[in-house]
Design goal:
The chain is α/β, with parallel strands linked by helices. The chain has 20 helices and 11 strands.
């Protein structure tokens, strides 16, 4: 069944809660993530009731809410929605929802009463989007590493298959108020990764995030934007064109249902999804208190690669990155070095070395003779031979070699360094 398929009929939140019973979705509290959530593992995919309940719960549960995640793991989506929409039954049960205050539980119930999942699914379908949840073929299994903080479901817009694209993906994140250097590095890394066949994941925010997305798109590559709002909400407004392009060529991802707007806490929680989806997180410019560092620390906790791009030691916008680099993060300067870390065995960055000068190609004995010539003026063969610790005959032969190569000139009976030293380019690039 497609990710967004549900039966129509205008069911309300209360009807979502009433379609199941405890026996249909319950399991012991110690069961693994997904074991009690409508049985997708057993059935091969979530059913209509499971999907509709999860769509409703995205209006009830804030991203990253581990307490609600434990309820979901324990009771399943259908039963949890039933309990939240039937408080009178929940109060009499032998197994009530615990771990939160009465006021907070009442807040969950108010949200559940106002949820209308079929309206949200219809809104998304009109935009060409879809809703996926655990057990769907498109669900990225690496999100299960988040445990009880795993998303309830994901609202998607765009033609790309999220699971397949996330298999070879790298997050590139950084400061919103970045410097020109940060914007340049974000775009360069985004383009470089795209050219090497990697999907660039970021948050569509101003600054480094937007630069990374644009770099990937400019290179004809693939990019995923994980939003802190609904997939139909453009934020920031200045990125309307960019977000529209990603929806057409890549995929927009959100935990929040259509119409929901971002908040500071939602930005923070969005970062855990970016970290979990990807093989590694690259941070380009970040202050000590930066959401990008939250993404990097999430990546570290999840066992993903944590990577930093250095900046000026005097720049406060690079201070957070440098702190990461003093820890367990790896330092990189280009896309090839990122791929060496996150890629397969043998995906090595090219060796780094300085330019090869003509003098470097001389035989050791010839180089010693060249070094024996004075910086100014002339010298006889005998003087040169003595300085080079060799015979006059050997020195004369080496001098003629150096003369042929343009290093020295003969002046009467003496020798001197060439007035116009041989100059060549460092290396030939691009096979030219």
């Amino acid at each position: 069944m497609p990710g967004g398929a549900v039966r129509s009929g205008g069911s309300t939140a209360g009807e979502v809660g009433s379609v199941g019973s405890v026996g249909e979705g319950s399991a012991g509290a110690g069961a693994g993530v997904g074991a009690a959530e409508g049985g997708p593992e057993a059935s091969g995919g979530p059913g209509d009731r499971e999907r509709l309940a999860r769509a409703a719960l995205t209006r009830v549960i804030e991203p990253g809410d581990e307490r609600a995640g434990r309820w979901l793991r324990t009771y399943g989506a259908v039963e949890l929605m039933r309990r939240l929409t039937s408080p009178e039954d929940a109060e009499d049960t032998d197994d009530p929802l615990t771990g939160v205050s009465a006021a907070r539980l009442a807040g969950y119930r108010r949200r559940a009463a106002g949820a209308d999942p079929e309206r949200d699914l219809a809104t998304l379908a009109a935009l060409g989007g879809r809703f996926i949840c655990p057990g769907d073929r498109e669900w990225p299994g690496q999100l299960d590493d988040l445990g009880d903080a795993r998303p309830v479901g994901l609202w998607l817009r765009g033609p790309a298959d999220l699971r397949l694209w996330a298999l070879r993906s790298v997050a590139v994140v950084g400061a919103r108020a970045c410097t020109p250097y940060g914007a340049h590095m974000g775009a360069t890394l985004g383009a470089g990764l795209a050219e090497k066949g990697w999907v660039v994941v970021s948050g569509a925010a101003a600054g480094v995030d937007g630069a990374a997305h644009r770099g990937a798109l400019a290179a004809g590559g693939a990019t995923i934007a994980v939003l802190a709002s609904g997939v139909d909400v453009v934020y920031p407004r200045a990125h309307a064109g960019l977000i529209g392009r990603i929806a057409q060529q890549g995929v927009l991802v959100a935990e929040l249902p259509p119409g929901d707007h971002p908040t500071p806490s939602r930005f923070v929680q969005r970062n855990r999804v970016i970290a979990a989806l990807t093989r590694g997180t690259v941070v380009v410019e970040a202050e000590y208190r930066s959401g990008s560092l939250v993404t990097a620390r999430n990546a570290q906790r999840l066992g993903r690669h944590t990577i930093g791009v250095p900046g000026p030691a005097t720049s406060g916008l690079s201070a957070g990155v440098h702190e990461l680099l003093r820890g367990e993060a790896a330092l990189v300067t280009d896309a090839a070095e990122i791929v060496e870390l996150v890629g397969e065995m043998g995906d090595l960055a090219p060796p780094r070395r300085g330019p090869v000068l003509p003098r470097d190609l001389l035989a050791p004995a010839t180089a010693r003779v060249l070094d024996a010539l004075p910086g100014h003026g002339e010298a006889t063969v005998g003087d040169i031979a003595r300085e080079a610790a060799t015979t006059p005959e050997e020195a004369l032969g080496r001098l003629y070699e150096l003369h042929s190569l343009g290093f020295v000139e003969r002046e009467g009976g003496g020798w001197r360094l060439a007035s116009s030293p041989l100059r060549t380019s460092s290396t030939r690039r691009g096979g030219a």
